[in-house]
Amino acid sequence: MDNSKIKVCIGLSGGVDSSVAALLLKQQGYDVFALFMQNWHDASTTLHGDCEWEEDRFVAELVARKVGIPFYFVDLSKEYRQRVVDYMFSEYEKGRTPNPDVLCNREIKFDAFLKCAKKLGADMVATGHYCRKDTVSITDKDGQSRQVHRILAGSDPNKDQSYFLCQLNQEQLSQALFPIGDIMKPEVRRLAHEADLPSADKKDSQGICFVGKVDLPTFLQQKLKPCEGDIVEIFDAFYADNEQYRNYESLRQIISEGSEKLSSLTDDQLLEFSKPISHEVRFETETYRSGRKHIKKTRYKANPFGKIVGRHDGAQFYTIGQRKGLNVGGHEQPLFVIETDIEKNIIYVGEGHSHKGLSRSCLRVAPEEIHWIRPDMKMEVGEQRRYSVRIRYRQPLQDATLLMRESGLYIIFDTPQRGITPGQFAAWYTPVEETLETGHKDTSMEMVGSGVI
User: Fold this and answer.
1) Would you kindly state where each structural domain of the chain is located, as residue ranges?
2) What SS3 class is residue 274?
3) 267-274 and 243-256 helices, crossing angle to 10°
4) Is 362 a catalytic residue?
5) Considering 9, 116, 166, 209, which one is annotated as catalytic?
6) Active-site residue among 9, 104, 166, 362?
7) What is this structure's pTM?
8) Which CATH class is domain 3-220?
9) Nearest to 15 by CA among 67, 75, 59
10) Shortest CA distance to 337 belongs to which of 325, 347, 352, 327?
């Protein structure tokens, strides 16, 4: 194929990854142009308090000049606020924790940005993601041969970013290129230095996609009002006679007995297994006299199940598994958020990484939230499959059984998972065999679907 006939728009951010992606596309003979998008204006929300995007744009323009490609600029801040930030606020208000990077790829980079690139004449768009795409021919149920696009994990296991693309569809993938997906990060830096790119030593971006590093509660307080409430620590004794926790333990026993046992579970049983434990504890008060003057005071009676250990500024500002920002002392091990009750404005916490309230084995994806990157691999109601799953970026893949039922898709992990968080994305992968240029066979992981927990 003559690459010079394919016009590619590289989303140039000013970082080293997209810079090297632009360099490689140019070297491979594509007709390349760069497009820098501004998605955020309000510098007051970032920890640095300055306009980081202005510096990024300046570096991106220098990179484009160095690579020798045209440079364009587009302001997509309106679309970003409406389709990413407003959604974030809405989700946090409901006590869920969204992933803005996944949303940004689905709604902005491979939608609004893609449409803008097409108007400028692009056939394809490229980004600096560490993931790979390939196209294979399959035979469908009608015996017809057609092509499908696959998302494969990046070759660098420490930088694989396929998870962030878990909501893309076949149409979006058909127009996407990921030039650095088969390169290790140190090699990307080396190529940048070799080409003397201005971004060669630029640090990787952190924080919310296109917003930057922020203090999340302060950022969310733009729309969500602070409201003081109790922080309640839950003790181990709470679980001794808790029906939900007994359900969890019975599920772990079923998991150990094998997949046939799992297939016999009813929808009602699966629904119960997938629900997080409610940690409501009732505290009774008592009066006592204090000091020489025996002043009458009120205090909470000791409770074997839990204790009020502090105050917070709003349950909506916290997420499951969080340990920072609680400001509660007097513990040998760190405290972790195990539940947020938005209606009653209470945060429940537990001490230590192995606290019983931190882990569970089953999660549910509602029918309307299930997304198949590979529609040809869609599971039918009643079907059961084995996949490798991750529920957050950089998490090692976890072995799990997926069961499709009328009430949704249930993911049952072989081992309990810490910090399963409503609003986050679960993405499932399957191994695929590839033939390398050397002729050797290699196994890669293909991401085939995802859904909101």
Assistant:
1) 3-220, 229-242+277-351, 359-452
2) helix
3) 110
4) no
5) 209
6) 104
7) 0.91
8) alpha beta
9) 59
10) 347
